[in-house]
Design brief:
With 393 residues, the chain is mainly beta. The chain has one helix and 32 strands.
Length: 393
């Protein structure tokens, strides 16, 4: 007997199912296949690394030492199966690698350390989910570039130190991670800067070995002097605030940020003169990591690459917004608009620019990255492929 005033609590769900037949078969199958009534019997599960926690709608697993490895299916579903893996470090280097998609697909991690993804299981699908690389120092953030590069290009790992202290740490890849599993190495990262490690087989190196079509190049030379001068340009007046110093570091490089000299922020690897290299018409390659020079009063990122007068060559500009801030921006080189890019989250986007003797007639290339949204503009890497040795003082 229910008395007057009794409150009855209940829950219900509403869903629309598109099916060829007007009956409950699809609904009943989905309820069982996705374990909506509880349990784990909806599809075959084989755990190899980690632990299964739940399978109601989401397949939920707990990682072991930063990784989980399991097979799911086969089972016919109306959607890709939602999957979440707990115990993952949100360090910018979290991915899934599966039988269905055998490459690293980078995925989000929430504040509780749970990675979220979807994968089809209409056929048996083995999935590895985890931190492709981790650092012993948890303040270090990582960017892995492995897929989508041109032929012969080595994968590389960028390590970012957001603190005001130098960091020396060990970087490693979990034992069962595809391709890189078991790799380890030590690295020193100056305060507020980033370094790049090239991945050569199972080794992490601070210099690039240039390869193409499986041919290795042994001839290496030290890069000539390259200067990249950065400062602030007012969006209203066009006035450039000059750097306080253009002194040269021990590597023959100067980098200035907002009028303040910041040494060792550029990484110049040894370069190759091999004709096997992709840009075989050029005899020098220069790499600048993380040029940062935006101003609090200007939405423009402005820097100058000092080259020989009437030089010709190519610029390769890499953009990767790991914070996923939905940045949109325009790219100008030598006062010419080259491209507009948007939402360049991991794994990022490359933009190639060919420059002429007219563009560099004054011995410099002016690059402007102009924000077209409310966010500051950004750029991750600048590569200069020059036909001439840059001018020096």
């Amino acid at each position: 007997m229910i008395k007057a005033g009794t409150v009855l609590k209940y829950r219900f769900g509403v869903g629309t199912f598109a099916a060829d037949k007007f009956d409950n078969a699809l609904l009943e199958h989905t309820t069982k296949a996705m374990n909506l009534g509880g349990g784990q019997a909806g599809y075959p599960v084989e755990m190899k690394v980690g632990e299964i926690k739940d399978a109601v709608f989401f397949f939920t697993a707990a990682a072991k030492k930063g990784e989980a490895l399991f097979s799911l299916g086969p089972q016919s579903l109306i959607i890709d199966l939602p999957v979440r893996v707990q115990g993952i470090e949100n360090n910018g280097c979290v991915a899934v690698y599966s039988t269905k998609s055998p490459w690293f697909r980078f995925i989000p991690v929430d504040a509780d350390g749970t990675a979220w993804l979807t994968e089809p299981i209409d056929q048996k699908n083995e999935m590895w989910v985890g931190n492709v690389f981790t650092c012993d120092n948890k303040e270090v953030k990582l960017t892995l570039i492995v897929d989508g590069q041109s032929e012969g290009q080595q994968p590389f790992l960028e390590l970012h130190n957001p603190t005001d202290k130098d960091i020396e740490t060990t970087v490693r890849s979990p034992e069962h991670a595809p391709i890189f599993g078991g790799m380890t190495g030590t690295v020193k990262i100056p305060a507020g800067e980033s370094v790049r490690l090239w991945i050569d087989g199972k080794s992490l190196r601070d210099k690039q070995e240039v390869k193409k079509s499986g041919v290795s190049t042994e001839e290496k030379v030290i890069a000539p002097q390259l200067k990249i001068l950065c400062g602030d340009k007012c969006s209203k007046t066009g006035e450039m605030r000059k750097p306080e110093s253009d002194s040269v570091t021990k590597d023959g490089v100067v980098f200035t940020e907002g009028g303040r000299t910041s040494e060792n922020i550029l990484n110049l690897p040894a370069v190759s003169k091999s004709k096997d290299y992709d840009y075989n018409v050029h005899d020098a390659v220069y790499v600048c990591n993380n040029p940062k020079a935006w101003s609090s009063y200007s939405p423009n990122l402005y820097f100058i690459i000092v080259v020989s007068k009437e030089d010709t060559g190519k610029l390769r500009l890499f953009f990767c917004d790991n914070a996923n801030n939905a940045i949109t921006q325009d790219i100008f080189v030598a006062d010419k608009k080259i491209s507009s890019i948007a939402e360049f989250k991991s794994p990022g986007k490359w933009v190639e620019v060919t420059y002429s003797a007219e563009d560099s007639k004054d011995g410099k290339l002016v690059v402007l990255i102009k924000s077209t949204c409310s966010r500051d503009p950004m750029i991750s890497t600048v590569e200069v492929y020059s036909n001439k040795v840059p001018a020096t003082k």
